[in-house]
Amino acid sequence: MSENATWLARYGAAYMPNFGAPARVLVRGKGCRVWDADGREYLDLLAGIAVNSLGQAHPDVVAAVTDQISTLGHISNLFTSLWQVRLAERLGAIATTNDPRLPARVFLCNSGSEANETAFKLSRRTGRTKIVAMEGSFHGRTIGAVSLTSNPKYREPFEPLPPGAVFVPYGDEAALEAAVDESTAAVILETIQGESGIVPAPDGFVAAARRITRDAGALLWIDEVQTGIGRTGDWLSYLPTGVTPDVVTMAKGLAAGVPIGACVATGPAGELLGPGLHGTTFGGNPLASRVGLTVLSVIERDGLLDHVRRVGDHFADAVTGLGHPGIVGVTGRGLLRGVVLSAPVGARVTARALEAGFLINAPRPDRLRIAPPLVITEAELETFVSALPTLLEE
Ligand SMILES: Cc1ncc(COP(=O)(O)O)c(C=O)c1O
């Protein structure tokens, strides 16, 4: 029996069956490469689902973790650290780039779901309960986040869910306008729906959502868990639209693999969660906060936003340039890309890619997701593009 098979059998007996069978047992990584328990090497085009923004074992992350855990790892929220304060200031400034005079307040937690749960609780403090969410949305697996996620597969096994969610077709401005009224606490949306298959909102939709929520006195809540922290070539994917949301949630790529989440509220929304109304034991501890700051510094120092735009566009052009009949097009921005297939063969292509040494996934049957570390090179991406025709063979 191979090492992979041995460990997968033990996993099957020891771990809850909620994920299904993992594809491989990974033991080591460096940059955009990982190795499995049998020594096979893979090019990581998934980054732990848009998390490992700087790849594996990035020297700045290793240094930050090592130094911080050797100095001050965890302290609880009865105390604070300079790292927590600095990261909150930095994230607030990023979220209000389009309106720098607006104050921002930050809550640090441990995951995207928890960041959304925080925003959910915050929205209830408006005194309103309706939340307008989008068809095709994914906001996480806690009960609150599931209630805002449209896919019945995630919702139905856990009903009854918290009441209040209403779903409208993604990108449909008229439907959004009709759904939002004076009882609406918030509108939640992703600028690019990740788990639905890298589906971008149409141009103008985010600005329309800003106008509609402002007119109704509702919060605009943008979920940047998958799209944020440089993934699309901007610090946050909504920034090019010129809007400033009331609430922004982030997680995934923020601390390069160290668990973290952040809920940023701008303007009056920042005052809604008063003393005692919310909390976390681990969230915002010195270790995670320091690594979050390190990631932001490295993205800035190494010009990674420009890099992401450049290599992301190059990848999309190269895939389109294949002119392959099995490929309809490429969606997304920066390094969050969907390869649209002409047939529902995503699972087969993903399995073949794994055999050929590429980690990708298929968030829906006709779509491959490419979300590699932000540090990936054009040459690394090209090895996958060259392999695509073979992976797509009947
Ligand atoms: C847009 C979005 N929101 C929230 C989540 C949930 O994040 P987490 O798995 O860290 O709880 C995800 C995870 O894929 C996501 O893509």
Describe the structure.
The strands form 4 sheets. The protein has a 7-stranded mixed β-sheet with strand order 4-12-11-10-7-5-6, with helices on both faces. It is an alpha/beta fold. The radius of gyration is 21 Å and the shape is globular. The mean pLDDT is 98. It has helices spanning 3-14, 47-50, 59-71, 82-95, 112-124, 143-147, 152-155, 173-179, 205-216, 286-301, 304-321, 346-355, 378-391, and strands at 26-30, 33-36, 41-44, 104-109, 130-134, 165-168, 184-189, 192-193, 199-200, 219-223, 247-250, 261-266, 327-333, 336-341, 358-359, 361-364, 367-370. Helices cover 36% and strands 19% of the residues. Bound molecules: pyridoxal-5'-phosphate (PLP). Pyridoxal-5'-phosphate is lined by residues 111-113, 116, 138-140, 190, 194-195, 223, 225-226, 251.
